Amino acid sequence: MSPNLAVTVAIVVLLVDVLLFVALIVLKTYHRRRVRRHDERRNRYIQVLSKHLAFEHAVDPIPPEAGEDEAFIDAVIDLRNTLTGVEVRKLSVIANRYDLIERQSKRLRNKLLVTRRLRAAVSLAELGNDQSARVLMDHLDDRVAEVRIQAARGLARIGYTPAIDRIVDRLESEDPWVRARFGDSLATFGPQATQPLMVYVRVNHAAGDIQAVVQAITTLSVIGDHSVGPQLAEVLERSTRPEVQIAAVGALGSVGGSHSLDSLLKALHAEDWRVRAKAATSLGMIGDPAAAHPLAAALEDEAWWVRRNSAAALARMAGGTQLLYRALTSPDMFARDAAAEALEDVGGLARARQRHEEGSATEDERRLLRHMRTVRALSA
After folding, report:
1. pTM of the complete model
2. Which residues have a Cβ under 8 Å from the Cβ of 151 and sit 6 or more positions away?
3. For residue 278, what are the contacts with CB-CB under 8 A and spacing of at least 6?
4. What secondary structure does DSSP assign to 214-267, as a single string?
5. Confidence band, pLDDT 50/70/90 cuts, at residue 112
6. Closest Cα to residue 200, out of 168, 242, 173, 246?
7. Torsion over CA of 251, 256, 257 and 259, rounded to 10 degrees?
8. Which of 12, 294, 295, 296 is a Cys-bridge partner for 310, taking CB atoms 3.0 to 4.6 Å apart?
9. What is the four-CA torsion angle of 63, 64, 67, 71, rounded to 10 degrees?
């Protein structure tokens, strides 16, 4: 390449870089101004809407074209999230004058503009009333995953119970991300979603989509309806699928109570170490002293996680700390380590050091200090 051509190319590249840089600055400036104007309009709309809510005969005008303005929609949504009771109904009346639901529904039905469709789905989910519920029901199987998520979220926000069965039925046809978000929406329905989820689990735990069943059980745990405890215990007894067993054991820690004690104690001896480890955690959550000695025995389990979880469960259980101190005399070095770690986590080691300095440490506390010194010497 000749020197003149090289210089020309360099100049052209420099000019292109400068133009791109200038274009970027212009676009950023335009975006900032657009956002600022949007926020200014939204704030004005909030002020006017607030007056209309406070005074039935307020005369501050809202322009007829407001229904097409994204700032007006955002203002309505912002107010909707701060109001309750009669005020929500008043705001809905105002929004209906500008056909917000119908306008957003038309945008959602547009199959080409994905960004606008998603914005419409979010708006309908936030505005939430019976009219938008019917539209959102039609989009639970939308081709765009995020639209499906917003449809389920909006239906849950509205409390539209006819949607529960539809959302539950779709658990097995969704990918993990959408399935988890559907689970969040079902949890929002609260106890109203309990039986549809439980029916799904009972029908599908043996041969259905395993991840969908696990998600359903996890959602039941989040809802926290204790009425499903006996049914989940039955699923745990019957299931041969470790993933389902783990989910059921975990849920029983939240909703099972003492009625699930026998099932969890059996799970503490399951063949799969993951089930045993989860059972130890759930027994600790329930806190029934009847589980203390089985958990102490599990400190000698062959799996580290089972030992660790059992020790942690004992640390939070009445009388469990004494069993942890007793485990420090076990011939099983791994049981000793698990017990010492749990005692350290609950402040036992710090207390032992303080009392040792004061000359008032108990034999159990001195034993814990000796164990920790030995461990550190071995690891040095």
Report:
1. 0.82
2. 121, 124, 125, 136, 137, 139, 140, 142
3. 246, 249, 250, 267, 309
4. HHHHHHHHHHT-GGGHHHHHHHHHH---HHHHHHHHHHHHHHTGGGGHHHHHHH
5. confident
6. 168
7. -150
8. 295
9. -10
